[in-house]
Design brief:
By secondary structure, the chain is of the alpha+beta class. The protein folds into three domains: about 90 residues, TATA-Binding Protein; about 120 residues, Elongation Factor Tu (Ef-tu), domain 3, CATH 2.40.30.10; about 110 residues, Nucleotide-binding domain of ferredoxin-NADP reductase (FNR) module (Rossmann fold, 3-Layer(aba) Sandwich). It is built from six helices and 19 strands. A six-stranded antiparallel beta sheet has the order 2-3-4-5-1-6, with helices on one face. The protein is globular. The N and C termini lie far apart (about 45 Å). The model has no long low-confidence stretch (mean pLDDT about 90). Pfam families: FAD_binding_9, SIP. GO terms for molecular function: oxidoreductase activity. Belongs to the SIP oxidoreductase family.
């Protein structure tokens, strides 16, 4: 069913084999985002909308539903990439072609206007940009586009086939993913909290950037704002901005627990939380770990008012282990658990 305010995009895959639906189900099912539909179809539900793949008399039909043109564009690209990865000879025929040469609908040019330190180990960068409404609705994250130094900026554009064309070679943009820590789309600003792990171009940029600098942003995407009545949140420093934003956006009657692993006391931050949520800081220096803390939590009842959700974000190896563990337990239902890899430890 299409609700008021939702946008739709329809596509056809005239020569698509039935195995494509199974491929889509396997890819998104690994993240608990896919379910089977009658007749061999697949429904994929993500933070920014939904995609259905339905077998037709000749091939397959695709429908995308989203709440903004930016989200519609992102999901359109995801479908095209998925189809091409399955069979490079297949392409989707969309009912609404895009105009080549324009900026992608999910792209904005932004300006740095302020910089501050919300706590030890972090820099907060405030950006201003036009039309930030979609960034406040769906998705926790965006891609920060940093132009190469000493060159004229080349921003992404849309090809005649409706795909994003990214500048390459010496014009390539550094494009890390960051959490939108806070946002005011009416005033036209957003804050990004950058964890200074001591490595990488973005850390250097954050330390050196001054107000007036121009960057690009693409989004929103990746992860949804939780809306559960009872939530359990867990993560390390890289997840701190996301956990803080979720907690500060939660209704005042929300219940649950949140645990954040940091190096020590000086890395804790002030976070406004509902009275029914217990925030626990874990200190790596004391040998405390997320896995041990998660084993001690009291699991909320399956019929908790407003639903329940377990949300974990940490290093990739640990995230993979925890995702498998909670699937094996079977104590949480489909769609009640989110386990995300926010970084990769290259030393393991």
């Amino acid at each position: 069913m299409i609700r008021a305010g939702e946008l739709t995009l329809n596509g056809r895959l005239p020569d698509a084999p039935g195995a494509l639906a199974a491929h889509v189900g396997a890819v998104y099912g690994a993240h608990d985002m896919a379910e089977s539909l009658p007749g061999g179809g697949i429904l994929v539900t993500v933070a920014t909308g939904a995609i259905s793949f339905l077998p037709a008399e000749a091939g397959m039909e695709v429908r995308i539903i989203a709440v903004s043109e930016a989200d519609l564009f992102v999901l359109r690209e995801a479908v095209s990439s998925l189809v091409e990865a399955f069979d490079a000879g297949l392409s989707v025929i969309w009912d609404r072609p895009l105009v080549g040469g324009a900026y992608p609908p999910n792209f904005r040019i932004a300006q740095v206007v302020a910089k501050s330190r919300p706590g030890a180990g972090f820099l907060r960068i405030r950006l201003t940009a036009a039309h930030l409404g979609p960034f406040a609705v769906n998705g926790l994250h965006l891609r920060l586009l940093l132009p190469p130094e000493g060159r004229g900026v080349v921003w992404p554009s849309v090809s005649d086939q409706g795909r994003t064309v990214w500048p390459a070679g010496e014009d390539a943009l550094h494009n890390p993913v960051y959490t939108i820590r806070s946002i005011d789309p009416v005033a036209g600003w957003m804050d990004l909290d950058i964890y200074l792990h001591g490595r990488g171009r973005t850390c250097h940029w954050a330390e050196e950037v001054a107000p007036g600098a121009i960057v690009g942003i693409v989004g929103p995407g990746g992860g949804d704002m939780l809306r559960a009545g009872h939530m359990v949140l867990a993560g390390d420093e890289t997840a701190l901005p996301a956990i803080a934003r979720i907690l500060e956006a939660a209704p005042q009657d929300a219940k649950g627990e949140a645990m954040i692993l940091v190096s020590g006391l000086e890395h804790q931050q002030e976070i406004a939380i509902p009275p029914g949520i217990c925030l626990r800081w874990l200190h790596r220096g004391k040998g405390e770990t997320l896995e041990a803390a998660l084993r001690d939590i009291a699991m909320p009842a399956a019929d908790a008012a407003g639903g329940r959700h377990l949300w974990i974000a940490t290093e990739r190896t640990e995230a993979t282990r925890l995702r498998a563990e909670y699937r094996e337990r079977g104590s949480w239902g489909r769609g009640e658990v989110t386990v995300a890899a926010y970084w990769t430890d290259t030393d393991v």
